Amino acid sequence: MKKTGIYHRVSLIMSALHHHSKVVLTSAGLCFIGTICLISCGSHHDGDHDENDGHDHGKELLSHDDEDGEGHSDEIVLEAAKAKAAGIEVEKIQPEAFHGVIHTSGSVLAASCDETTVVATISGRVGQTGHISEGMKIESGMKLFSLTLGDIQVADGDPIQRARIAYEKAKREYERAETLVKDQIVSEKDFQLAKAEYEEAKLTYESVKQSRSTGGVIVKAPRGGYVKQNLVKEGDYVEAGQPLMVITQNQHLYLRAEVPERYWSTLSRITCAKFRTSYSEKLYDITDMGGHVQSYAHSASPGSAYLPIIFEFNNTGDVVQGSYAEIFLITDEKKNAMTIPLTALTEEQGIHYIYIRVDEDGYRKQVVTLGQNDGVRVEVLQGLEGGEEVVVKGAIQVKLASASNAIPAHTHNH
């Protein structure tokens, strides 16, 4: 009988146990004996099996591995032609220079040098010379408003009489100062001030007289740009010097980032910034837009836990002032960092994965631990050693391939 050797071994074990009274044969012991039998069966093909019984344990083990014995049970098979058609691209990852990043938020503001306020030259009632709305493009010298006196009765008396009195007073002061400055009784500074007040009063008086004779004065745009704010509407009464409109050229903008107080010591080391607006996925780089750090706060505002840092940059034409921005502040340089594009990442239940190409038709799923990102690339703290070919475009296609039951077993040789 072919299995005699096996039964003989079991008999010897049972006999040994019988002669040791302190040994208790439990169910675990019986399982152990059964395991010995199975191992003996698997290790003696030539004595315990028929050559033609059709049961090959070696082939059974290889069904989970490659023919050459290398384990690839976790390998994802995606033929090169299909990968190319799906737009899959890989990048060989090597240690490189990166930088620290402070991820925060803020807003885009108009630069003060780009804004002009249009004011009323006389007191009167507002009339618009045409339809003007916020955001409208205007040219320098364009007619914006008309200011008319009409039959307006004001508490301070007739505007022309008031302008005339102010003009005559300023004229007397100017003439007096002009005489005294020659004898150095009046300083040159006081003389220039009296002269400026006289010229301003003269212009106001002439404008008021003209408005009475012609029915009003026209307020023109002092420079070209875009209407940021229209502060009055037709029919409003305004005083001389009152703001009517704000014009912006929209050529220079500010980026105001709100930085948590804990980064106070880092503010002076911030070199540039990248930002993304709420209405676009495009990432802007301050450096590429001729930008620089304008200023940063040395103290927090009362009731606020944030410190503002402001960048000035040239508007490329597609950045809307006043918009919310997601901001990446760039700080100290890091050397020998492992980084990958953000497009290489996939996520499952809060765990981040990448896919590494192991050969022409095979990919491997890899868990990674991430560091800071600058909106384009992210630092990998764990999961990469360097030299790996990481899928940077089409990672989702590889993920779908790994979940497909239609993909055949990977049997190619390496």
How would you portray this structure in words?
It is a single chain. By secondary structure, the protein is an alpha+beta fold. It has four domains: 4-55, no CATH class; 75-95 and 338-403, conserved putative lor/sdh protein from methanococcus maripaludis s2 fold (Beta Barrel), CATH 2.40.420.20; 101-112 and 250-335, Beta Barrel (Elongation Factor Tu (Ef-tu), domain 3); 115-248, Beta Barrel (OB fold (Dihydrolipoamide Acetyltransferase, E2P)), CATH 2.40.50. The protein has eight helices and 24 strands. It is elongated. The two termini are 45 Å apart.
CATH architecture of the largest domain: Beta Barrel
Supply the CATH class of the largest domain. Mainly Beta
Radius of gyration: 42 Å
C-alpha termini separation: 45 Å
Major pleated sheet: 7 strands, antiparallel
Proportion in β-strands: 25-35%
> What is the count of distinct domains?
4
CATH superfamily of the largest domain: RNA polymerase II/Efflux pump adaptor protein, barrel-sandwich hybrid domain
Tags for this entry?
alpha+beta; conserved putative lor/sdh protein from methanococcus maripaludis s2 fold; disordered C terminus; elongated; Elongation Factor Tu (Ef-tu), domain 3; 8 helices; single chain; 414 residues
Kindly summarize this structure in a few lines:
By secondary structure, this protein is an alpha+beta fold. The protein is 26% helix and 34% strand.
Strands, helices and their partners?
Blueprint: H1 4-18, H2 27-43, H3 45-48, H4 57-62, E1 75-77, H5 80-85, E2 89-92, E3 96-110, E4 115-119, E5 124-128, E6 137-138, E7 143-148, H6 159-180, H7 188-214, E8 217-220, E9 225-230, E10 237-238, E11 243-248, E12 252-260, E13 272-277, E14 284-285, E15 292-296, E16 306-314, E17 324-337, E18 339-341, E19 346-348, E20 351-359, E21 362-367, E22 369-373, E23 377-382, E24 389-393, H8 395-403
Antiparallel strand pairs: 1-21, 2-24, 3-12, 3-17, 4-11, 5-7, 5-10, 6-9, 7-8, 9-11, 12-16, 13-14, 13-17, 15-16, 18-23, 19-20, 20-21, 20-24, 22-23
